[in-house]
TrEMBL record, chain A:
Compartment(s): Cell membrane
GO CC terms, sorted: plasma membrane
Transmembrane segments: 65-84, 91-113, 172-189, 219-242, 254-280, 300-319
Protein name in the entry: Nucleoside ABC transporter membrane protein
Domain of life: Bacteria
Broad class of where this protein is predominantly found: membrane
Automatic annotation (TrEMBL), chain B:
Subcellular location: Cell membrane
Organism taxonomic ancestry: Bacteria, Pseudomonadati, Pseudomonadota, Alphaproteobacteria, Rhodobacterales
Record key words, sorted: Cell membrane, Membrane, Transmembrane, Transmembrane helix
GO molecular function terms noted in the UniProt entry: transmembrane transporter activity
This protein's name: Nucleoside ABC transporter membrane protein
Stretches of the chain forming a coiled coil according to its record: none
Residues annotated as transmembrane: 12-33, 53-75, 87-104, 110-128, 140-160, 200-220, 241-264, 276-295, 302-323, 329-348
Gene Ontology cellular-component annotations: plasma membrane
Pfam family, one: BPD_transp_2
Membrane topology of this protein: Multi-pass membrane protein
Keyword field contains rRNA processing: no
InterPro entries (UniProt xref): ABC_transp_permease
Length: 336, 364
């Protein structure tokens, strides 16, 4: 295994970790406010579909992104109505949202595009292009030199490989994801809104007594959750892949939830957890590398199940205890 | 505040929730440019107007009865078992092992053996989440979801690497021997002159599902254990005070739940495909949630709801065959049922409660 192999593996990890990261931060806002959300998967899925559909119609990935966010926010409002206004069971509401998205996306996709529940492939500006940072070797350099990009990177020095392959050349949404981590940390731990948000997830009655609306805070958190899930889904359909296919989120919403537990509901840890799970998914695509490193064949199914197994181990408290916000999953009933 | 009468709670509210779900489903069908009334007619024709349609409806209903009961039993202990899918998948493995490696002389014995295999494997798959919830406080919803994914990976591994016959391409076990073949409704109800349930997969495990409904009713309302489960579900602290061990009840309730979810594998794996295949569960584990919610966690309600969902499943397949409406329509209907009968329950309940109170005041 060469240095470039490692760099490429980490590069894939970042690509695959980014949708997890958005969804994980989405869950973080929601659960910090005391609203458990197992509907991340559904919101990502519906955002993936609507972003792909509108990017296709408009030929503009940004239009797609907005449509994806709008669809995801709509589901977030339903979750908010069920779990905040009508004090229903948040878990059941999340399950319903996942099914709603799984069914609606295929139904609408079939009705609009008649291609068996997928959108036509996106091309050109319908996808988010890759950002080329200064001094990196990118497609334009390759074109100028008239040689394949992979060959040019393979010949470059390790620092240039690391910079061009791993740091540069990602979709703008990947960089936005990293900024969102910092923003989430800042909002949660350095602003008044964040302080109140964390408080409402731990002790809503105290927040209420202080004259701050529990309902408004929770709705705000659920809406932020919707926006971030929208970004996650749009990234999948318009950046990672070129279009929507049925069930394309494939359990990523649940892996994001797992990462959230892994990270113990903290933003920077969430980033590392998502990148770790992204790394597992990247490994699945390169079983040859694992075999070369540890000298034996590892079952691909085991690799796929690893994030889930790890989550159960974490949940069981064998590697440090993960304690969720105290009031999570409990509807707040104002005393009269 | 006065309560409303019991019949309103167990009949009126579910029916209104169901009508709301049906109304929104009709809107969805309209939105994709089809006629809801025509769609309903197609569904009724395909699922109920022929005996073979009934055969499919009852086949699906058998699955949903098992998974619905599984969710319902766990709900009584206020545990949300979302892992029926994984439990049924692993139970399929139990059924396959029993059918493939034990030479059964007759199906009547084989179905007992397969039921034990399915129940044991299903219960085993529910045991770890149950134990972790009871002893270490890990949330059962998250662990059972994770166990669904782990089950899928495990089954994939077992089918691809271990159970697949030499030379076969698709990930599936060998065919089960003839001694384990369950009589289908076609075998049971056809006469010399008229063939009934032609080609439909409904089989004798339907009666197993009916027995399971009776068993759950007896268990929950007629045994000490059932009383303990309900008491624990109503109030954990009161149950503890009464000397009921939360650990014991959590584990037992989940074991029963997992065993019931697992039993559906008898129907799918032994009764229908007669070999273990990937994705035999077809989402029935999740539909169990809708079935239990609609059936108000009562076995009779679960029975009715399972038939309704069996009808929807078969009707949905007919729709996909004759119109442009894909099968996923029933996923949407399922989502709406879960949303209105489960999550938005208070939205329907509160106005009706107020109505009853207002009526009572006027009468008084």
């Amino acid at each position: 295994m060469q240095f470039l192999d490692i760099v490429q593996l980490l590069d894939t990890s970042i690509r695959l970790g980014t949708p997890l990261l958005f969804a994980c931060l989405a869950g973080l806002f929601s659960e910090r406010s005391g609203v458990v959300d197992i509907g991340l998967e559904g919101k990502m899925l519906i955002a993936a579909f609507f972003s792909a559909a509108f990017a296709y119609y408009s030929g503009n990935a940004w239009v797609g992104l907005l449509a994806g966010i709008a669809a995801s926010v709509l589901l977030a409002v339903i979750h908010g109505l069920a779990s905040i206004t009508f004090r229903g069971n948040q878990l059941i509401s999340g399950v319903a949202i996942n099914f709603l998205a799984a069914g609606m996306t295929v139904l609408i996709a079939q009705s609009w595009f008649k291609q068996g529940g997928r959108t036509p492939p996106l091309t050109g500006n319908g996808r988010f292009g890759n950002v080329e940072l200064p001094f990196a070797i990118g497609p334009s350099d390759a074109e100028a030199a008239g040689r394949p990009l992979s060959q040019m990177i393979a010949e470059a020095g390790p620092v240039q490989q690391f910079y061009s392959e791993l740091i540069s050349g990602h979709s703008i949404l990947v960089y936005l994801g990293l900024i969102t981590v910092a923003a989430t940390w800042w909002i949660l731990f350095r602003t008044r809104f964040g302080l109140r948000l964390r408080a409402v997830g731990e002790n809503p009655a105290a927040v209420d007594t202080a004259g701050v609306s529990v309902i408004q805070l929770r709705y705000a958190a659920v809406l932020i959750c919707g926006v971030l899930c929208g970004l996650a889904g749009a990234y999948m359909a318009t950046s990672l892949q070129a279009g929507f296919v049925k069930d394309m989120t494939a359990g990523r919403g649940f892996i994001a939830l797992a990462a959230l537990i892994f990270a113990k509901w903290r933003p920077v840890y969430a980033m590392w957890a998502c990148m770790l799970f992204g790394f597992f998914q990247a490994l699945e695509t390169r079983p040859d590398l694992i075999e070369a490193v540890i000298g034996m064949k590892v079952q691909i199914q085991l690799l796929g199940a690893l994030p889930y197994i790890l989550t159960v181990v974490i949940l069981a408290g064998f590697i440090g205890k993960a304690i969720p916000p105290k009031a999570s999953a409990e509807p707040y009933i104002k005393e009269r | 505040m006065d309560k409303m009468p019991k019949w309103a709670d167990i009949v009126l509210i579910p029916v209104i929730s169901l009508l709301l779900a049906a109304f929104f489903s009709a809107l969805v069908i309209l939105a994709i440019g089809e006629n809801p009334l025509e769609a309903l007619k197609l569904m009724v024709d395909g699922a109920l107007m022929r005996s073979s349609g009934w055969g499919y409806t009852l086949y699906y209903a058998t699955n949903f009865m098992f998974t619905g009961l599984a969710v319902a039993v766990a709900f009584h202990a206020r545990l949300f078992n979302i892992g029926g899918e994984g439990q049924a998948m692993i139970a399929g493995l139990g059924v396959a092992l029993v059918c493939l490696y034990i030479p059964w002389p007759h199906w009547s014995l084989a179905i007992l053996g397969a039921s034990v295999g399915a129940a044991c494997f299903g219960a085993l798959w529910a045991l770890i989440p149950a134990y972790l919830q009871a002893r270490r406080g890990s949330h059962i919803v998250i662990t059972t979801i994770m166990f669904n994914f782990i089950a899928a990976a495990l089954l994939n591994y077992v089918l691809v690497e271990l159970l697949r016959p030499v030379g076969a391409m698709d990930p599936a076990s060998a065919k089960f021997p003839a001694g384990t073949h369950l009589p289908s409704f076609q075998d049971m109800f056809s006469t010399e002159t008229t063939k009934m349930f032609r080609g439909a997969p409904a089989n004798v495990s339907f009666f197993l599902a009916l027995a399971a409904c009776v068993f759950v009713w007896l268990l929950i309302w007629r045994t000490r254990l059932g009383y303990e489960i309900r008491a624990f579900g109503q109030s954990e602290s009161a149950a503890k005070y009464a000397g009921i061990s939360p650990v014991r009840i959590t584990v037992i309730a989940m074991l029963i739940s997992g065993a019931l979810a697992g039993m559906m594998a008898v129907n799918t794996t032994m009764g229908e495909s007669e070999r273990l295949i990937l994705n035999a569960t077809e989402g029935a584990g999740f539909i169990g949630i809708a079935v239990a919610l609609m059936g108000r966690n009562h076995p009779f309600g679960v029975f009715l709801a399972a038939i309704l969902f069996g009808f929807l499943y078969q009707g949905g397949a007919e729709l996909a065959l004759w119109t442009n409406i894909p099968r996923e329509l029933i996923v949407v209907i399922q989502a709406l049922v879960i949303l209105f009968t489960g999550a938005l329950d208070n939205m329907v309940r509160e106005p009706i409660e107020k109505l009853f109170i207002a009526m009572r005041r006027r009468n008084a």
